[in-house]
Design a protein that fits this description.
This protein is α+β, with helices and mostly antiparallel strands. The protein is built from 15 helices and 13 strands.
Protein backbone atom coordinates (compact mmCIF):
# COMPACT_ATOMS: atom_id res chain seq x y z
CA UNK A 1 0.00 0.00 0.00
CA UNK A 2 1.14 3.52 -0.80
CA UNK A 3 -0.27 6.65 0.82
CA UNK A 4 0.40 10.37 0.79
CA UNK A 5 -1.04 13.22 2.83
CA UNK A 6 -1.99 16.47 1.11
CA UNK A 7 -2.58 19.53 3.30
CA UNK A 8 -5.72 21.32 2.08
CA UNK A 9 -5.88 23.87 4.90
CA UNK A 10 -4.57 24.24 8.45
CA UNK A 11 -7.46 22.03 9.60
CA UNK A 12 -8.09 19.65 6.69
CA UNK A 13 -6.09 17.10 4.70
CA UNK A 14 -6.61 14.75 1.79
CA UNK A 15 -5.14 11.27 2.19
CA UNK A 16 -4.41 9.51 -1.11
CA UNK A 17 -4.22 5.71 -0.89
CA UNK A 18 -3.16 3.15 -3.51
CA UNK A 19 -3.72 -0.55 -2.79
CA UNK A 20 -2.53 -3.27 -5.22
CA UNK A 21 -4.86 -6.26 -5.53
CA UNK A 22 -2.06 -8.56 -4.36
CA UNK A 23 -2.77 -7.29 -0.82
CA UNK A 24 -6.49 -7.99 -1.05
CA UNK A 25 -6.53 -11.81 -1.17
CA UNK A 26 -7.67 -12.14 2.50
CA UNK A 27 -10.43 -9.63 1.82
CA UNK A 28 -11.63 -11.54 -1.24
CA UNK A 29 -11.60 -14.81 0.72
CA UNK A 30 -13.82 -13.26 3.42
CA UNK A 31 -16.11 -11.73 0.78
CA UNK A 32 -16.60 -15.10 -0.98
CA UNK A 33 -17.36 -16.83 2.33
CA UNK A 34 -19.87 -14.16 3.32
CA UNK A 35 -21.68 -14.15 -0.02
CA UNK A 36 -21.68 -17.95 -0.18
CA UNK A 37 -23.67 -18.01 3.06
CA UNK A 38 -26.28 -15.73 1.47
CA UNK A 39 -26.69 -17.44 -1.93
CA UNK A 40 -28.39 -20.78 -2.55
CA UNK A 41 -26.64 -22.77 -5.32
CA UNK A 42 -27.90 -26.24 -6.22
CA UNK A 43 -25.41 -28.96 -5.41
CA UNK A 44 -23.59 -27.01 -2.71
CA UNK A 45 -24.27 -26.60 0.99
CA UNK A 46 -24.60 -22.97 2.26
CA UNK A 47 -21.15 -21.39 2.41
CA UNK A 48 -19.44 -24.16 0.47
CA UNK A 49 -19.77 -22.93 -3.13
CA UNK A 50 -16.31 -22.15 -4.62
CA UNK A 51 -15.42 -18.67 -5.82
CA UNK A 52 -15.59 -19.47 -9.55
CA UNK A 53 -19.09 -20.94 -9.16
CA UNK A 54 -20.25 -17.88 -7.19
CA UNK A 55 -18.90 -15.50 -9.82
CA UNK A 56 -20.54 -17.46 -12.62
CA UNK A 57 -23.86 -17.26 -10.82
CA UNK A 58 -23.90 -13.68 -9.40
CA UNK A 59 -21.08 -11.95 -11.28
CA UNK A 60 -17.93 -10.22 -10.11
CA UNK A 61 -19.48 -6.87 -9.10
CA UNK A 62 -21.04 -7.91 -5.76
CA UNK A 63 -17.73 -9.41 -4.68
CA UNK A 64 -15.84 -6.24 -5.59
CA UNK A 65 -18.39 -4.12 -3.70
CA UNK A 66 -17.96 -6.24 -0.59
CA UNK A 67 -14.17 -6.06 -0.77
CA UNK A 68 -14.02 -2.33 -1.42
CA UNK A 69 -16.42 -1.57 1.44
CA UNK A 70 -14.24 -3.58 3.82
CA UNK A 71 -10.87 -2.43 2.55
CA UNK A 72 -11.30 1.34 2.44
CA UNK A 73 -11.85 1.96 6.21
CA UNK A 74 -9.05 -0.46 7.16
CA UNK A 75 -6.51 0.95 4.69
CA UNK A 76 -7.54 4.48 5.67
CA UNK A 77 -6.63 3.74 9.30
CA UNK A 78 -3.30 2.28 8.19
CA UNK A 79 -2.56 5.45 6.21
CA UNK A 80 -3.53 7.66 9.18
CA UNK A 81 -1.20 5.76 11.49
CA UNK A 82 1.64 5.68 8.96
CA UNK A 83 1.36 9.43 8.35
CA UNK A 84 0.79 10.23 12.05
CA UNK A 85 -2.26 12.24 11.06
CA UNK A 86 -4.28 13.57 14.04
CA UNK A 87 -7.75 13.24 12.59
CA UNK A 88 -10.96 14.83 13.85
CA UNK A 89 -14.35 13.47 12.89
CA UNK A 90 -15.32 11.21 10.03
CA UNK A 91 -13.63 11.27 6.61
CA UNK A 92 -15.24 11.77 3.21
CA UNK A 93 -14.19 8.86 0.97
CA UNK A 94 -14.02 8.82 -2.82
CA UNK A 95 -12.90 5.90 -5.00
CA UNK A 96 -10.76 7.46 -7.72
CA UNK A 97 -9.62 4.31 -9.49
CA UNK A 98 -10.72 0.68 -9.47
CA UNK A 99 -9.08 -1.66 -11.96
CA UNK A 100 -10.16 -5.22 -11.25
CA UNK A 101 -7.25 -7.52 -10.42
CA UNK A 102 -4.88 -4.55 -10.64
CA UNK A 103 -5.29 -1.65 -8.21
CA UNK A 104 -7.70 0.24 -5.92
CA UNK A 105 -7.14 3.93 -5.39
CA UNK A 106 -9.21 6.19 -3.12
CA UNK A 107 -8.98 9.49 -1.28
CA UNK A 108 -10.17 10.50 2.19
CA UNK A 109 -10.70 14.14 3.14
CA UNK A 110 -10.83 14.65 6.88
CA UNK A 111 -10.46 17.40 9.47
CA UNK A 112 -7.27 17.32 11.51
CA UNK A 113 -5.91 18.95 14.62
CA UNK A 114 -4.15 22.12 13.53
CA UNK A 115 -0.62 23.07 14.46
CA UNK A 116 -0.84 25.61 17.30
CA UNK A 117 2.01 27.86 18.37
CA UNK A 118 1.78 28.04 22.15
CA UNK A 119 2.55 31.28 24.01
CA UNK A 120 5.04 31.67 26.85
CA UNK A 121 3.11 30.35 29.83
CA UNK A 122 5.42 32.00 32.35
CA UNK A 123 4.14 35.43 31.34
CA UNK A 124 0.51 34.75 32.27
CA UNK A 125 -0.71 36.99 35.08
CA UNK A 126 -4.29 37.39 36.34
CA UNK A 127 -6.03 39.10 39.23
CA UNK A 128 -8.93 37.58 41.18
CA UNK A 129 -11.41 38.91 43.72
CA UNK A 130 -10.56 38.92 47.41
CA UNK A 131 -11.94 36.30 49.73
CA UNK A 132 -14.29 38.09 52.10
CA UNK A 133 -16.45 36.32 54.64
CA UNK A 134 -19.34 38.27 56.11
CA UNK A 135 -20.96 37.20 59.36
CA UNK A 136 -24.33 37.53 57.65
CA UNK A 137 -23.33 34.63 55.38
CA UNK A 138 -22.66 32.47 58.42
CA UNK A 139 -26.06 33.42 59.81
CA UNK A 140 -27.64 32.54 56.47
CA UNK A 141 -26.08 29.08 56.51
CA UNK A 142 -27.23 28.62 60.08
CA UNK A 143 -30.77 29.60 59.10
CA UNK A 144 -30.71 27.07 56.25
CA UNK A 145 -29.67 24.39 58.72
CA UNK A 146 -32.44 25.44 61.11
CA UNK A 147 -34.90 25.22 58.21
CA UNK A 148 -33.97 21.57 57.74
CA UNK A 149 -35.15 20.89 61.26
CA UNK A 150 -38.13 23.17 61.04
CA UNK A 151 -41.79 22.19 61.37
CA UNK A 152 -44.84 23.34 59.41
CA UNK A 153 -47.81 24.70 61.33
CA UNK A 154 -51.17 25.83 59.99
CA UNK A 155 -52.00 29.54 60.28
CA UNK A 156 -55.28 31.44 60.24
CA UNK A 157 -54.19 34.40 58.10
CA UNK A 158 -53.58 35.32 54.45
CA UNK A 159 -50.61 33.69 52.73
CA UNK A 160 -47.27 35.46 52.95
CA UNK A 161 -43.95 35.12 51.19
CA UNK A 162 -42.11 32.06 52.53
CA UNK A 163 -45.29 30.21 53.54
CA UNK A 164 -46.05 26.68 52.37
CA UNK A 165 -49.38 26.30 50.63
CA UNK A 166 -51.38 23.44 49.16
CA UNK A 167 -52.93 24.60 45.89
CA UNK A 168 -55.11 23.47 43.01
CA UNK A 169 -54.15 24.74 39.54
CA UNK A 170 -55.88 24.94 36.19
CA UNK A 171 -55.17 26.93 33.03
CA UNK A 172 -56.83 27.79 29.73
CA UNK A 173 -55.54 29.23 26.46
CA UNK A 174 -58.16 30.99 24.35
CA UNK A 175 -60.83 29.24 26.41
CA UNK A 176 -59.31 25.79 25.85
CA UNK A 177 -58.13 23.86 28.89
CA UNK A 178 -54.40 23.03 29.14
CA UNK A 179 -54.23 19.46 30.50
CA UNK A 180 -50.57 19.62 31.48
CA UNK A 181 -51.22 22.69 33.65
CA UNK A 182 -53.97 21.16 35.80
CA UNK A 183 -53.18 19.65 39.20
CA UNK A 184 -54.56 19.46 42.71
CA UNK A 185 -53.03 19.23 46.17
CA UNK A 186 -49.71 20.63 44.96
CA UNK A 187 -47.36 21.70 47.77
CA UNK A 188 -45.56 24.95 47.03
CA UNK A 189 -43.28 27.33 48.91
CA UNK A 190 -44.20 30.91 48.07
CA UNK A 191 -41.22 32.78 46.68
CA UNK A 192 -39.26 29.67 45.63
CA UNK A 193 -39.79 30.44 41.94
CA UNK A 194 -40.53 26.80 41.14
CA UNK A 195 -43.79 27.46 39.29
CA UNK A 196 -45.00 29.82 36.56
CA UNK A 197 -44.40 33.56 36.60
CA UNK A 198 -47.07 35.53 38.44
CA UNK A 199 -48.20 32.82 40.83
CA UNK A 200 -46.47 34.30 43.87
CA UNK A 201 -48.16 37.67 43.36
CA UNK A 202 -51.50 35.92 43.00
CA UNK A 203 -51.17 33.75 46.13
CA UNK A 204 -49.76 36.34 48.52
CA UNK A 205 -52.66 37.82 50.45
CA UNK A 206 -55.03 34.96 49.63
CA UNK A 207 -56.90 33.17 52.41
CA UNK A 208 -57.52 29.44 52.75
CA UNK A 209 -60.20 28.39 50.27
CA UNK A 210 -59.81 31.54 48.15
CA UNK A 211 -59.32 31.35 44.36
CA UNK A 212 -57.18 33.81 42.39
CA UNK A 213 -56.65 34.19 38.65
CA UNK A 214 -53.75 35.66 36.72
CA UNK A 215 -52.25 35.66 33.23
CA UNK A 216 -48.87 34.15 32.43
CA UNK A 217 -46.95 33.09 29.31
CA UNK A 218 -46.31 29.37 29.01
CA UNK A 219 -42.73 28.34 28.22
CA UNK A 220 -43.16 24.62 27.46
CA UNK A 221 -45.65 22.12 26.10
CA UNK A 222 -48.09 22.40 23.21
CA UNK A 223 -48.96 25.98 24.18
CA UNK A 224 -45.42 27.28 24.64
CA UNK A 225 -45.17 31.00 23.97
CA UNK A 226 -48.91 31.62 24.44
CA UNK A 227 -50.67 33.56 27.22
CA UNK A 228 -52.69 31.41 29.60
CA UNK A 229 -55.38 32.31 32.13
CA UNK A 230 -54.41 30.49 35.31
CA UNK A 231 -56.71 29.77 38.24
CA UNK A 232 -55.14 28.90 41.60
CA UNK A 233 -57.09 27.87 44.71
CA UNK A 234 -55.37 27.96 48.10
CA UNK A 235 -56.39 24.85 50.07
CA UNK A 236 -54.18 25.43 53.12
CA UNK A 237 -51.57 27.87 54.44
CA UNK A 238 -48.71 26.85 56.73
CA UNK A 239 -45.65 28.62 58.03
CA UNK A 240 -42.32 27.09 58.92
CA UNK A 241 -41.31 27.37 62.55
CA UNK A 242 -37.56 27.24 63.13
CA UNK A 243 -35.86 25.84 66.22
CA UNK A 244 -34.08 28.33 68.45
CA UNK A 245 -30.38 28.78 67.58
CA UNK A 246 -28.88 27.58 70.84
CA UNK A 247 -26.60 24.88 72.20
CA UNK A 248 -29.45 22.36 72.22
CA UNK A 249 -30.00 22.90 68.51
CA UNK A 250 -26.24 22.56 67.83
CA UNK A 251 -26.27 19.16 69.55
CA UNK A 252 -29.34 18.10 67.55
CA UNK A 253 -28.10 19.21 64.15
CA UNK A 254 -24.37 18.55 64.36
CA UNK A 255 -21.51 16.87 66.18
CA UNK A 256 -20.82 20.00 68.26
CA UNK A 257 -21.86 20.74 71.82
CA UNK A 258 -22.27 24.49 71.53
CA UNK A 259 -23.74 26.92 69.03
CA UNK A 260 -20.45 28.80 68.83
CA UNK A 261 -18.58 25.64 67.84
CA UNK A 262 -21.15 25.01 65.14
CA UNK A 263 -20.84 28.56 63.80
CA UNK A 264 -17.04 28.30 63.79
CA UNK A 265 -17.34 25.16 61.68
CA UNK A 266 -19.67 26.96 59.28
CA UNK A 267 -17.16 29.81 58.98
CA UNK A 268 -14.39 27.34 58.15
CA UNK A 269 -16.49 25.60 55.52
CA UNK A 270 -17.58 28.89 53.97
CA UNK A 271 -13.96 30.02 53.82
CA UNK A 272 -13.01 26.86 51.95
CA UNK A 273 -15.87 27.35 49.51
CA UNK A 274 -14.81 30.94 48.84
CA UNK A 275 -11.23 29.82 48.38
CA UNK A 276 -12.47 27.31 45.84
CA UNK A 277 -14.41 30.07 44.07
CA UNK A 278 -11.23 32.10 43.93
CA UNK A 279 -9.39 29.19 42.36
CA UNK A 280 -12.14 28.70 39.78
CA UNK A 281 -11.97 32.40 38.91
CA UNK A 282 -8.20 32.08 38.45
CA UNK A 283 -8.67 29.03 36.24
CA UNK A 284 -11.24 30.77 34.05
CA UNK A 285 -9.15 33.92 33.68
CA UNK A 286 -6.01 31.95 32.83
CA UNK A 287 -7.95 30.09 30.17
CA UNK A 288 -9.30 33.34 28.74
CA UNK A 289 -5.76 34.71 28.65
CA UNK A 290 -4.59 31.60 26.79
CA UNK A 291 -7.40 31.84 24.25
CA UNK A 292 -6.79 35.54 23.65
CA UNK A 293 -3.06 35.09 23.11
CA UNK A 294 -3.20 31.95 20.95
CA UNK A 295 -4.39 31.56 17.38
CA UNK A 296 -6.38 28.34 17.04
CA UNK A 297 -7.63 27.50 13.51
CA UNK A 298 -11.11 25.99 13.67
CA UNK A 299 -12.11 22.84 11.75
CA UNK A 300 -15.47 23.89 10.34
CA UNK A 301 -16.94 20.38 10.27
CA UNK A 302 -16.11 19.89 13.95
CA UNK A 303 -17.69 23.23 14.82
CA UNK A 304 -20.76 22.34 12.75
CA UNK A 305 -21.06 19.05 14.63
CA UNK A 306 -20.83 20.86 17.96
CA UNK A 307 -23.53 23.32 16.88
CA UNK A 308 -25.77 20.46 15.80
CA UNK A 309 -25.32 18.76 19.18
CA UNK A 310 -26.34 21.93 20.98
CA UNK A 311 -29.39 22.33 18.79
CA UNK A 312 -30.38 18.73 19.42
CA UNK A 313 -30.02 19.13 23.19
CA UNK A 314 -32.03 22.38 23.15
CA UNK A 315 -34.94 21.08 21.09
CA UNK A 316 -35.07 17.58 22.61
CA UNK A 317 -37.29 18.62 25.59
CA UNK A 318 -39.86 19.83 23.01
CA UNK A 319 -39.96 16.40 21.29
CA UNK A 320 -37.99 18.02 18.45
CA UNK A 321 -40.93 20.28 17.63
CA UNK A 322 -39.19 23.29 16.10
CA UNK A 323 -42.30 25.45 16.28
CA UNK A 324 -42.72 24.81 20.01
CA UNK A 325 -39.03 25.51 20.53
CA UNK A 326 -39.34 28.81 18.65
CA UNK A 327 -42.31 29.81 20.80
CA UNK A 328 -40.34 29.03 23.95
CA UNK A 329 -37.49 31.24 22.74
CA UNK A 330 -40.01 33.98 21.95
CA UNK A 331 -41.29 33.79 25.54
CA UNK A 332 -37.72 34.48 26.67
CA UNK A 333 -37.42 37.44 24.32
CA UNK A 334 -35.17 35.58 21.86
CA UNK A 335 -35.43 34.40 18.27
CA UNK A 336 -34.21 31.22 16.62
CA UNK A 337 -31.55 33.34 14.92
CA UNK A 338 -30.39 34.61 18.33
CA UNK A 339 -30.12 31.02 19.57
CA UNK A 340 -28.18 29.93 16.49
CA UNK A 341 -25.75 32.84 16.82
CA UNK A 342 -25.17 32.02 20.49
CA UNK A 343 -24.75 28.32 19.66
CA UNK A 344 -22.10 29.13 17.05
CA UNK A 345 -20.20 31.45 19.40
CA UNK A 346 -20.26 28.91 22.23
CA UNK A 347 -19.37 26.03 19.92
CA UNK A 348 -16.40 27.85 18.43
CA UNK A 349 -15.08 28.64 21.91
CA UNK A 350 -15.58 25.03 23.07
CA UNK A 351 -13.70 23.63 20.06
CA UNK A 352 -10.89 26.20 20.40
CA UNK A 353 -10.58 25.33 24.09
CA UNK A 354 -10.39 21.60 23.47
CA UNK A 355 -7.82 21.94 20.66
CA UNK A 356 -5.69 24.31 22.73
CA UNK A 357 -5.72 22.13 25.85
CA UNK A 358 -4.96 19.02 23.79
CA UNK A 359 -1.92 20.77 22.33
CA UNK A 360 -0.78 21.87 25.79
CA UNK A 361 -1.25 18.33 27.10
CA UNK A 362 0.96 17.03 24.29
CA UNK A 363 3.60 19.68 24.89
CA UNK A 364 3.64 19.05 28.64
CA UNK A 365 3.47 15.26 28.18
CA UNK A 366 0.43 15.07 30.47
CA UNK A 367 -0.49 11.53 31.51
CA UNK A 368 -3.68 10.21 33.12
CA UNK A 369 -3.49 7.33 35.58
CA UNK A 370 -6.21 4.88 36.57
CA UNK A 371 -6.94 6.67 39.85
CA UNK A 372 -7.58 9.96 38.05
CA UNK A 373 -9.83 8.33 35.48
CA UNK A 374 -11.76 6.54 38.24
CA UNK A 375 -12.13 9.84 40.11
CA UNK A 376 -13.72 11.44 37.06
CA UNK A 377 -16.05 8.49 36.48
CA UNK A 378 -17.26 8.59 40.10
CA UNK A 379 -17.73 12.36 39.91
CA UNK A 380 -19.73 12.16 36.68
CA UNK A 381 -21.80 9.23 37.94
CA UNK A 382 -22.80 11.27 41.00
CA UNK A 383 -23.79 14.21 38.78
CA UNK A 384 -26.11 12.00 36.72
CA UNK A 385 -27.44 10.07 39.71
CA UNK A 386 -26.25 6.62 38.61
CA UNK A 387 -23.75 4.10 39.90
CA UNK A 388 -20.17 4.25 38.56
CA UNK A 389 -20.63 0.81 36.95
CA UNK A 390 -23.77 1.95 35.13
CA UNK A 391 -22.06 5.17 34.02
CA UNK A 392 -19.11 3.21 32.60
CA UNK A 393 -21.48 0.83 30.82
CA UNK A 394 -23.33 3.77 29.22
CA UNK A 395 -20.05 5.41 28.26
CA UNK A 396 -18.83 2.18 26.62
CA UNK A 397 -22.07 1.76 24.69
CA UNK A 398 -21.94 5.34 23.40
CA UNK A 399 -18.20 5.27 22.74
CA UNK A 400 -17.50 8.06 25.24
CA UNK A 401 -14.77 6.51 27.39
CA UNK A 402 -12.12 8.10 25.20
CA UNK A 403 -13.81 11.49 25.64
CA UNK A 404 -13.77 11.07 29.43
CA UNK A 405 -10.05 10.32 29.32
CA UNK A 406 -9.46 13.34 27.09
CA UNK A 407 -11.39 15.62 29.48
CA UNK A 408 -9.31 14.51 32.46
CA UNK A 409 -6.13 15.08 30.45
CA UNK A 410 -7.27 18.58 29.41
CA UNK A 411 -8.11 19.42 33.01
CA UNK A 412 -4.64 18.41 34.15
CA UNK A 413 -3.07 20.41 31.33
CA UNK A 414 -4.97 23.54 32.35
CA UNK A 415 -4.19 22.99 36.02
CA UNK A 416 -0.47 22.82 35.23
CA UNK A 417 -0.65 26.20 33.49
CA UNK A 418 -2.65 27.79 36.31
CA UNK A 419 -0.10 26.59 38.87
CA UNK A 420 2.65 28.30 36.90
CA UNK A 421 0.75 31.56 36.37
CA UNK A 422 1.02 34.64 38.55
CA UNK A 423 -2.30 34.95 40.38
CA UNK A 424 -2.90 37.87 42.72
CA UNK A 425 -5.82 39.36 44.62
CA UNK A 426 -7.06 42.92 44.20
CA UNK A 427 -4.36 44.13 46.59
CA UNK A 428 -1.62 42.50 44.53
CA UNK A 429 -0.94 39.72 47.03
CA UNK A 430 -0.11 36.31 45.52
CA UNK A 431 -2.74 33.56 45.80
CA UNK A 432 -1.84 29.99 46.76
CA UNK A 433 -3.95 27.70 44.57
CA UNK A 434 -2.60 24.37 45.80
CA UNK A 435 -5.94 23.64 47.50
CA UNK A 436 -7.64 23.54 44.11
CA UNK A 437 -4.96 22.27 41.72
CA UNK A 438 -2.60 20.36 44.00
CA UNK A 439 1.16 20.70 44.27
CA UNK A 440 2.96 20.78 40.94
CA UNK A 441 5.63 18.24 41.86
CA UNK A 442 3.70 16.29 44.48
CA UNK A 443 2.79 12.65 44.03
CA UNK A 444 -0.39 13.30 46.01
CA UNK A 445 -1.84 15.75 43.53
CA UNK A 446 -5.43 16.69 44.17
CA UNK A 447 -7.07 14.49 41.55
CA UNK A 448 -10.61 15.60 42.40
CA UNK A 449 -9.65 19.23 41.97
CA UNK A 450 -7.99 18.52 38.65
CA UNK A 451 -11.20 16.79 37.63
CA UNK A 452 -13.23 19.83 38.64
CA UNK A 453 -10.88 22.09 36.73
CA UNK A 454 -11.82 20.38 33.49
CA UNK A 455 -15.60 20.45 33.41
CA UNK A 456 -16.56 24.07 32.82
CA UNK A 457 -13.98 24.59 30.08
CA UNK A 458 -14.10 21.38 28.08
CA UNK A 459 -17.70 20.26 28.41
CA UNK A 460 -19.79 19.67 25.24
CA UNK A 461 -22.67 21.49 26.88
CA UNK A 462 -22.10 24.98 28.23
CA UNK A 463 -24.40 24.43 31.16
CA UNK A 464 -22.06 21.78 32.55
CA UNK A 465 -20.16 23.34 35.45
CA UNK A 466 -17.70 22.20 38.04
CA UNK A 467 -18.57 21.28 41.59
CA UNK A 468 -16.46 24.18 42.74
CA UNK A 469 -18.09 26.42 40.19
CA UNK A 470 -21.39 25.82 41.95
CA UNK A 471 -19.90 26.84 45.27
CA UNK A 472 -21.94 30.01 45.55
CA UNK A 473 -25.04 27.81 45.80
CA UNK A 474 -23.48 25.12 47.98
CA UNK A 475 -24.91 24.35 51.39
CA UNK A 476 -21.75 24.15 53.47
CA UNK A 477 -23.47 22.68 56.51
CA UNK A 478 -23.28 19.09 55.21
CA UNK A 479 -25.64 17.90 57.92
CA UNK A 480 -28.87 15.97 57.66
CA UNK A 481 -32.24 17.37 58.60
CA UNK A 482 -35.88 17.32 57.67
CA UNK A 483 -38.84 19.64 57.60
CA UNK A 484 -41.80 17.97 59.29
CA UNK A 485 -45.46 18.76 58.94
CA UNK A 486 -47.38 19.36 62.08
Amino acid sequence: MKSTVEQLSPTRVKINVEVPFDELKPNFDRAYRKIAQQVRIPGFRPGKAPARVLESRIGRAPVLDEVVNEVIPAKYMEAVQAGEVRTLGRPDFEVTKLEDREVLEFTAEVDVRPEINLPDFSGISVSVDDVELNESEVDEQLDELRARFGTLAGVDRPAENGDFVSIDLSATVDGEEVPDASTSGLSYEIGSGQLVDGIDEAIIGANEGETKTFTTRLVAGDYAGKDAEVSVTVQSVKERELPEPDDEFAQLASEFDTLEELKNDLRERLSRVKKMQQGVEARDKVLESLLESTEVPLPENVVAGEIENRKHDAIHPFDHDEEAFAKSLEAEGKTVEDFENEARTESEKAVRTQLLLDTIADAENVQVNDAELTERIIYQAQRFGVSPDEYVQRAQQSGQLGAIYADVRRGKALASIVRGATVTDSAGEPIDLDELFGKEDGAEENDAAATEATDAVTAEATDEVTASGDADETDVTETAGTTTDR
